[in-house]
Amino acid sequence: MRCLITSMKGGVGKSSISYNLAVHLGCICITNDLTVPQHDDIIQIPTGKNRIPKGLTSLDSAVFDFGAMSTMLDKKISHALQLCDLVIIPTRIDARSLEATLETYKLVKEAGKPIVIIINHFRDWKKHDAARDHLLSKLGNRVPILAIRETTLFDRVSRDGREWLLNIHNDRGAHMLSRTQRAHEVVYDRIQSMAGV
């Protein structure tokens, strides 16, 4: 599976979800975010490049993490849209993030790929429900909306990498993170099924 994770707004969890999904799929994460940690399974595309390098376009499975668009698609995002099986738009529950999600949806829907929205990094289910209701009022039932609650799991994976995540069940004192990992895997499995994988 190849998927694109993108949003017009920064700070909505694109890179965190991208890397964790890539670990779940057993593939690499390809990003234009120069602030992500250096891991062997993350490939950073230099900012001056307009397209994804040819050697990366032939991969059967990859997660593209491209963010920070304006009112037009960045050329790398347009290229990833051609390659991907599915688009994921992460959002937080604040009004600016939700509006950026709707704008991102308008830009990427023209590609005709399945789109999933993930409401990310929230604590309060009532606020999640209000954000979900707002999105549903604008989009109807055209787009599945999934949820990933606030967690320190993303920070640990970012710091400690793939091997730590794959062996979390063996890490003493990581019981809660192990439960969180299982909850995330349910979301990632649904994403795979939506992509027809």
Number of strands: 7
User: Which range does the strand content fall in?
Assistant: 15-25%
Q: Which blocks of ≥5 consecutive residues have pLDDT under 50?
A: none
Q: How is the CATH topology named?
A: Rossmann fold
Rg on CA atoms, Å: 16 Å
What's the order of the H and E elements? Answer: EHEEHEHEHEHEHH
Protein name: CobQ/CobB/MinD/ParA nucleotide binding domain-containing protein
Organism: Marinobacterium maritimum
InterPro entries: P-loop_NTPase (IPR027417)
Q: Would you kindly provide a written description of the structure presented here, covering whatever features stand out?
A:
With 197 residues, the chain is of the alpha/beta class. It has one domain (2-194): Rossmann fold, CATH 3.40.50.300. Helix content is 45%, strand content 16%. The chain contains seven helices and seven strands, in the order βαββαβαβαβαβαα. It has a seven-stranded parallel beta sheet, with helices on both faces. Helix 1 runs parallel beside helix 6 (153-166). The longest helix is centred in the C-terminal third of the chain and has 20 residues, at 175-194. The N and C termini lie close together (7 Å).
